Amino acid sequence: MSSAFVLPEPWQNALKTYPDLLKAAPNVLSASDYVSQWGQRQESMLGQLLESQQLQKKLSLDDIRQQLKSMLDGVTTEEQLHQKLRHFRQWMMVRIIWRDLANWSDLAETMADLSAMADVCIQQTLNILYDWQIELNGIPRDDDGREQKMIVLGMGKLGAGELNLSSDIDLIFTYPEEGETEGGRKPLTNSEFFIRLGRKLVQALDNQTVDGFVFRVDMRLRPFGESGALVSSFDAMEEYYQTQGREWERYAMIKARAITGNEADKKALSDMLRPFVYRRYLDYGMFDSLREMKSMIAGQMHHRGMDDNIKLGAGGIREIEFIGQVFQLIYGGRDRPLQQRPILTILDLLADRKLLSAYAVDQLKRAYDFLRRTEHRIQAWADQQTHILPGDDESRLRLAQSMGFDDWSSFFVVLRDYRQQVQEHFDQLLTAPQAGDEGAGMKISLLNAQHEEKLSFIEQCGYDDPAEIVAVVDKLLDLHICRNLSQTGRQRLEKLLPLLLQATGNVDNADACLPRLMPLMESIMRRSAYMALLVENPMALSQLVKLCSASPLISTQLAKYPVLLDELLDPRSLYEVPEKQELKIQLLQFLSSVDADDLEQLMNRLREFRQIATLHVAAADVTGVLPLMGVGDQLSELAELLLEQVWRIAWEHLVAKHGYPPITDNDDPQQCGFTILAYGKLGGLELGYGSDLDLVFIFDDAQEGMTNGERPVDLMVFYTRLAQRMIHLLNTVTPGGILYEVDMRLRPSGGSGLLVSPFSGFADYQQKEAWTWEHQALVRARNVIGDHQLAQKVTDVRQGILARARDEAMLAEQVRDMRAKMRQQLDKSDSQLFDLKQGKGGITDIEFMVQYAVLAWSRDLPELLIYTDNIRILEALVVSGKLKPAEGQMLADAYRYYRNEANHCVLQDRPTLMSVTQLQDFPQQVVQIWQCWLGENA
């Protein structure tokens, strides 16, 4: 059609000297009656537009801003303002439509230009109207005399920077503080002032004049809708959203963007609204809310017979936006990058996080591009706000050709395929997971059933003692919190409880497992979104039951911290234990949503991260995915990462107050003049699930001077405060518990010693005052974080102390005596049970033997000083000839066996005792080598 199109005469004349424009004109003008007629009506403005060469080039936001500024220059009346704004709108619309239809701009540019046009119109119009109004009524100020400005929130497509050719603009007006005007003819309240200003702004943009309008303005998204005040203060907004805000308003507020106002006010508003929109826990209740919203829309669409609506109809633009926004509402509170507005950016993030497959995201993005370009072509014809496919043949052909197709049928096949793909993804996401389930769980309401009905249902689930299980369920239902659930909470519990009973009935220890789950059920009733999570995710429910069946410790942790339920959503990742570098990336991403100065929230997030990472290790452990040595390595690496993050938080706080110590001018831990020496299980890379951290803090006292900040302090004071703050961050009890219990008793002089040891003092103490048991502890000591050069000096001292010449007989006696005292106090073995840690021939005996070997022989066998973990020291003893290969293998096997059983005792939430009938003959073999090396009294 476009090849036979005859250009209107004004266009022919105007384009004679612009060959590139002349070539594109048939395609553009045949597809847009609006552009064609504008050029015929506004020949003078057409000439100016062509001379500007803005049709041929991409404009920046600043270009668009300057264009309007020059057009509004010298405006003195509202009539002039209205006219100039409308001329600017026509100019920009013609330019944007031309570039779109000529295929000179992509979708991103088109949406950005339309949104920029709206932004600058709002900003510059508001500035002019504000200046005019303060001349009449004075300057609005708060009680402290600070000038107040109105903030315009752009909602919907404007907020996201995704405006279409004929979009309404959805706005909300607000201002920071109450007060009154100063300097006017008579004082007005700030509310009165801004309501007048808001009305003027709406009129300037929305009123229909001989020149048309600028934007249709929709103010119905404001608090209380059309019945609410046109403008609200921050306090009024906060009160509304805390007490009255509804789910659809959370959905709408995702795209809210402050278009006007200073940066401080914008941030304050954003910080105030964020908790309403983004919850700190995973909000799976959104699925039900969006199903209801979608159902209402679908009903309206069916009622109106609008199946050809490419925005609201099945497989339309709105469904793509729904898909992105449901994930934003669920995960955005925990994942700050998901708090962005553009839908295409969000879809990419969902693929990165594996919340949607890359294939699905690719289909949705391509569909979105096609649908939005189609929408623009429909609207470009007559500048009308419509999303309906044309019904007559001529209009259909015009639309198809403007989209690059030869005919309607070929265009419609592609459009139909895209919409079908979108609808399939949308339905898959929002279809209730139990829809159509014919299982018994969907036929009974345990909240209302009679005793016999419950008993019959539970018998079908496969429990050994159904009557006892009924009693467990009744006890839950009789709890005060259960009887006082909200209507939403009761509905969610009604769905979840039968599903939980069915899932638990499938495990081998069902009768023991279900009671373990009751504290968790009680906990999640306080925040029913977690009940929604389990209802919406059958796989998460299955993993929950599997893990709680395997470990009471895991069920206890989940009951304490239901936020861990989030980790059950993807069984593929639940049992994956990342490498240290990947874990570090995850930690930094996890903390990225917290403001650096929000110490309380940082502490909570650190604790939450530890719990999450530990859950992954425990899940991999109980299912046999992770071997014993891997458990110790993973938990030790996790502790090191968290220690480093705690150091960084404490360091940045101290440096901000006091400046840097002389040794450094940066925040690199390897140059900080401070190191952390880890002893015990962390030092030996054998950390367990509930292990303390045995730490010693050391600073390099070879440096001299003070810190270089505005409030300088002595180095001893600086590093002591650094250590104190770290211990505070680690030990403080928060809603997430503690991060780690820290034991500092191994520092020089123990509990009476300095909190932070000068290096020279540490070295001197180890050389002159330390007891043999302290040198034993030094065998498993290693630097885990801190200054690289200082760590090397500490390592040199350690190796020098351990390799000191010793009287082997005296050493053996000292080690025997210490071991005997420990066993007398701590060994819980009896004739039936063996204490895996303290029993004769158990874990501690092997550790003491290794420590004795290092202290006795490392002077001549320096290879014993390389590692701090028992297994590799045993390997070195075999290589050196101090142990026969079979002996070394036996000790290593015994040590692994004991520790593995001890770990599982912890996971089973029971003492580290084992029936002597289940023991192998390891204890006797260990005792034989002990007696060979150290004599009797093992």
How would you characterize this protein structure?
The protein is an alpha/beta fold and 938 residues long. The protein folds into five domains: 58-243, Beta Polymerase, domain 2, CATH 3.30.460; 286-430, Four Helix Bundle (Hemerythrin (Met), subunit A) (Up-down Bundle); 459-574, Up-down Bundle (Four Helix Bundle (Hemerythrin (Met), subunit A)), CATH 1.20.120; 580-802, Beta Polymerase, domain 2; 808-934, Up-down Bundle (Four Helix Bundle (Hemerythrin (Met), subunit A)), CATH 1.20.120.330. The chain contains 40 helices and 14 strands. Helix 2 (19-31) packs across helix 6, helix 14 (317-331) packs parallel to helix 18 and helix 25 (538-550) packs across helix 26 (552-560). The model is unreliable at 435-442 (pLDDT under 50).
